[in-house]
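Write out this protein's structure.
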Amino acid sequence: MENLKVTLVQSELNWHDKASNFMLFDHLLESNISETDLIVLPEMFTTGFTMKAEDYAETMDGNTVSWLKDQAKRFDSCITGSAIIEEDGSYYNRLLWVTPDGNAQHYDKRHRFSLAGEQNHYSAGSDRKVFELKGWKIFPQICFDLRFPVFSRNDLEYDLAFYIANWPERRSHAWRTLLPARAIENQSYVIGVNRVGKDGNDVLFRGDSGLFDPLGKMVSKIKPHEETVQTFQLNAEELKEVREKFKFLNDRDQFEIKL
């Protein structure tokens, strides 16, 4: 494993306006990125967290995947974020993982946010995924997934978990608490990327994006309510040392997660 540079993009989102969001991220990335290995965008970065799946869905051949491929090539890095994707008549809140060579993989959100009725508009994912980058095994999750520690349990031998979100300010205490908890219990780096601003339903988001080390210590935090792009370096040797010194993962319970 090599050290890994990861760029967190904490931004506002233009409600139901894909073209404006593409322009927004074009500007943010161009202005703030010089060198990185991975760019992490918020959940539903093209529309905001909407239940109008039929109105804003695309296929894997649509503009969002094409835009992500262009950015991955442009910055010679992986890029990830979620969007509304239609496949075989079903709609998914789909995290897209795109590499500089144009390869696009995905993870479909497993835990749909019932308070907003997400389960009435989107199908649940059926797989736990791990992506690989520079020797790192990376576990992708979306927003509400953060509340389910069994699903995040590190029986997949991952090194980094990341959570992209539209997590409201009124429940920000849970966001700030559960991110370091996931790092501690899984002895992995954890990243959270959340949006800021208000959406079309007048819901306020404060961000609180950040990076936590394998002991749950906050390595860096982006200021709340600010549109900010920051790049951090994850230390591979530090991860190795923590796991060798504190062999807690060796004592994991064995169980099966039924999807």
